[in-house]
Specification:
By secondary structure, the protein is an alpha+beta fold. Helix content is 29%, strand content 27%.
Amino acid sequence: MLRRQARERREYLQRRAREQQQQRQRERRESLRRALDENRLLPTELRHEALALQKELEFDFEAPGGGTGDSQDDEYRWAGLEPPKVMVTTSRDPSSRLRLFVKELCLLLPGARRMNRGRAELGALVGACRAAGVTDLLVVHETRGRPDGLTVSHLPHGPTAHFTLSGAVLRQEVGGLGGAPLAAPHLLLLRLDSTLGKRVGTILKHLFPVPRPDSRRVVTFANEDDVILVRNHVYRRRGRTVELEEVGPRFQLRPYLIRLGTLEQGDTADVEWRWHPYTATAPKRRLLSAT
């Protein structure tokens, strides 16, 4: 079993590296094509290989359907064919508020199950989830009884995304609520249109199953200044108007690290992206949106 997992992981990383190399080559050819079409100087980094790239352009064609034939992460290639199997757990010795927040997080994610952490190590935890066919493992962290961190690890090979969690408001604190809706929700991903934003949106949206067309529930992931606002609503139609009712829970997420491995690999996994808040241009950048 361990040898098979190591082989699958090695093949996965090799396939991903090959796709990234092909993507960089496509970007260089597209840059050369634009320069030739606009009759302007070639970019400096392409002048030494311009002739070779021009020969490749003669055989370059678009894949059927407008795609390139590959994906950023083939772990999500078959997503949507079967509902995801999500497991939610906490750090050790959770407080009562964290237990309640995890319970409501399982209501937010249809089909998610809660697992008591106990004294289990991360390796045993991830191994048990793999054996049970779990697709995503969520670990919620806290500081002094306040939920402040969320880790999403996609199984069996990754990626693993780390978020800071803030502003957690429980269902009973929202007020005026009935029963918890359990239908699979429609998803709204607002202003997550940069390369990183699409990557984070892919990780988050595949925690939810495909909804039915008549579902009256909506979960929104709205980006505001690189902070993702998470809201859960139900709606009903009254004539030509639509009424929204927030059912909670409510919280904010901010990504700060994405690794290519799973949770138990820790620092040994390759870093795909890391937030650098102390650079000179950090206050001016918008990472999750293209504008």
